[in-house]
Amino acid sequence: MRIAIDAMGGDHAPVETVKGAIEALNEIDATMVLIGNEGAIKDELAKYTYDQSRVEIIATTEVVENEDKPVIAIKRKKDSSMVVGFEKVRTGEIDALISAGNTGALLAGGLLRVGRIKGIDRPALTTVFPTFSGMFVMADVGANAECKARNLLEFGIMGSIYAKDVLGIDNPKVGLINIGSEEGKGTPMINEAYQLLKESSLNFIGNVEARDIPERKADVLVCDGFTGNVVLKLTEGVAKSFMGEIKSIFMSSLLSKLAAVAIKGKLRGLKTKMDYTEFGGAPLLGVKAPIVKAHGSSNSKAFKNAIKYAEKYVSNNIIEKISKEIK
Amino acid sequence: MRIAIDAMGGDHAPVETVKGAIEALNEIDATMVLIGNEGAIKDELAKYTYDQSRVEIIATTEVVENEDKPVIAIKRKKDSSMVVGFEKVRTGEIDALISAGNTGALLAGGLLRVGRIKGIDRPALTTVFPTFSGMFVMADVGANAECKARNLLEFGIMGSIYAKDVLGIDNPKVGLINIGSEEGKGTPMINEAYQLLKESSLNFIGNVEARDIPERKADVLVCDGFTGNVVLKLTEGVAKSFMGEIKSIFMSSLLSKLAAVAIKGKLRGLKTKMDYTEFGGAPLLGVKAPIVKAHGSSNSKAFKNAIKYAEKYVSNNIIEKISKEIK
C-alpha cells in the first residue's frame, strides 16, 4: 500500500508532515509517498533514521495556499502538491492522499479531479469525534453547508460503513442531530431526512439533541455540513476554554499547584480523550479514492494517526462497500 | 411593575416557581403575579414569610403540558396559566410574563396571542450566554429553525438593544456565526445576512467561527434558530461532561480527594460561571409584550434571575426601542 502525504499542506509543513510520515512507518506496513518541494522534504528526511525503501518523494513546484480560491487553485496550480496528489490517487498510483492544506481546495479537488462514487450526490467530510465515553463518527462536518434530505441519508450509509470498519462497531446506531428529541422537530429538510433514515435499513435511533452529543448517544451522527462544522469547532472551543480555566485554577496558589501534582496524570488523560490529534484526519467519503483532510494545525502525531486511519480506510475496501451499499 | 410567573410551567412547578417569585421580592421593586392552580400556589406560599402586598394570584384551571401540540394547546386551553398570561400581558394588566412551560406553546402564543412588533418579521428567542470571559447575547436560539437573511439582521438589531440595556454594553459588537472567518463562507442565506449586517448601522465585526464562541469575540451573536439551539445545548452538554469528568478524577483516590479540597472554592466558581441558572430566562424579542422563556428544569434561583432580567427588560422600555429602531 502506498499512502501519500501532501508534504506542503498545513500550518507546520513540511516539518510535521514529514515527521508524521516517518513515525507512521513504525506502526503500519505501507510506503509513505511525500509530495512537495524535493529539497525541503529531503532536508526534513535528513533529520531521521528510517527504512528508506518505504519512503518516496514526488517532486512538485507549486503549493495551494490557504488564501487561494479553491476551484481556481485546483484548475491552475497543476504542479502543486495537492493537485498532483489528486491525479496520483485517481489513477491508483497511490492508494490514499492525506492533506492538511486548504480545505475548500481539497473538497473541490475531490469532486472535480477525483469524482464522486456513482449514486452519491454529495461526498461528506467525515470525522471521528472524541467524547469521554468513546468515539463516534460524524458526517458532514463541512463539505456541504447546505444539504438535501437524501444527502443526510447518504451520510448515514457512508458513516455506518466507516464506523464498522474503522472503529469496529457492529450494526452502528445512527442518530440525526436535531433541536428536539421528538419526531417532527426541526426544519422541513430535517423532517424529510428523518423519514428517509427511518425507512432505510440503517440502525436509526432518531433525533439526538446537541446536549446529548458528548454523551455518545449514537455511533454515527448525521447533519448538514454547516451544523457539523459548528458542532466540531464548538466542542473544540469549549474543551479548550475549560482546560484553560482549569489550568489557571491550578496555577493560582501554592496549595492548588500541589493539588495539580496529585492529579496530573489524570488531567493529562482528560486532555488526551478530547485531543483531535489522536484521530488525525477526516476522510472525504463518497469520492472514488481515499482522500483524508487533516486539521490545519496538525502536528506529527496527528499526521501519523491520519495515516493509520487512512490505512484502515484502504485495507477495508470502504469505497467498494459504499459503492455497493448505495445501489 | 407587575411581573407574572406561569406558576404551573417547568419540571419543578409550582414548588420552584413560587419559591423563585418570593426570592425575587427581596431583590426588585415589583409585584409578583402567580398564575395557576390557586390551591397549589397557596400551599406553596404558606411555606414562606413575605410581603403579601406584593404577591397576587390569578387562578386558572388548566395547564399546557409539555406533550401538548403548541398551536392546539394555545387555542383550546383558554383557562391555562400560560394562555391567561398571554391575555394579561397583551392588555397590559401585567408588564411581563415568565414561563418555563412548553417552549413551542410559548412561542406560538407570543406570535398568535400577543403579536409581533410592527416591522419585525420573526421574533427571536434571545439568551444571555455564559463564557469564562463574561456574558454575551445570542439570537435566535430556537424560535425559528429556518431563517431568511433579513431575520438575522433583525436579530442583530434586537440583540444589540438587549445587550446595551440589560448587560450594559455600549455599542455592542455583533458577530455572525459562520463556518469560516472570511467573508463569503457559509450558505447563500448566511452570505446575504453578512451583507445586510455589513450595510447596517450595527457595530458588525464579521463572521465568528464556533470555536471562538467561548472566547466571547462579540457582544451579540446572530444565527438561525437551529444553529443557535445547537450551540446553546452543545455548550451545556460539553460543560456538563467536563464537570462530570473532573469530578470523577477528584473522587478517584484519597490524594485526589485532598487535592479537590484545596481548590474546591475555585471549582465552584468555574461551575457558577457556566451556570444557566444565573441567567434564568430567554426573552422572546420582537413580540409586543415582554415574554420570557425559562429553562424547563429551572430551580428557584433560575426563576429569581429570570424575574430580575424581566424587570430590566420592562424598565428599559426595550420594546419601544426595538419598535423605533426597526423603522
Helix and strand arrangement:
2 copies of one chain form a homodimer.
Chain A: E1 2-6, H1 15-25, E2 31-36, H2 38-45, E3 55-59, H3 70-76, H4 81-91, E4 96-99, H5 103-114, E5 124-131, E6 134-139, H6 149-166, E7 173-178, H7 188-199, E8 203-209, E9 220-222, H8 225-250, H9 254-273, E10 281-285, E11 291-294, H10 300-315, H11 318-326
Parallel strand pairs in A: 1-2, 1-4, 2-3, 4-11, 6-9, 7-8, 7-9
Antiparallel strand pairs in A: 5-6, 5-10, 10-11
Helix pairs in contact in A: 1-10, 3-5, 4-5, 6-7, 6-11
* CATH topology description of the largest domain in chain A: Isopropylmalate Dehydrogenase
Q: Reading side by side through the largest sheet of chain A, how are the strands ordered?
A: 3-2-1-4-11-10-5-6-9-7-8
Largest interface: A-B, 52 and 52 residues
CATH superfamily of the largest domain in chain A: Isopropylmalate Dehydrogenase
Rounded to the nearest angstrom, the radius of gyration of chain A is 20 Å
Query: What share of the residues of chain A lie within helices?
Result: 40-55%
Q: What is the percentage of strand-forming residues of chain A?
A: 15-25%
- What is the assembly state of the chains in this entry? homodimer
Give the helices and strands of chain A as they follow along the chain: EHEHEHHEHEEHEHEEHHEEHH
Query: What is the residue-mean pLDDT of chain A, rounded to a whole number?
Result: 94
Uncertain stretches of chain A: none
| Name given to the CATH architecture of the largest domain in chain A | 3-Layer(aba) Sandwich
How many structural domains does the protein architecture of chain A include?
Answer: 2
- The helix-and-strand class of chain A reads alpha/beta
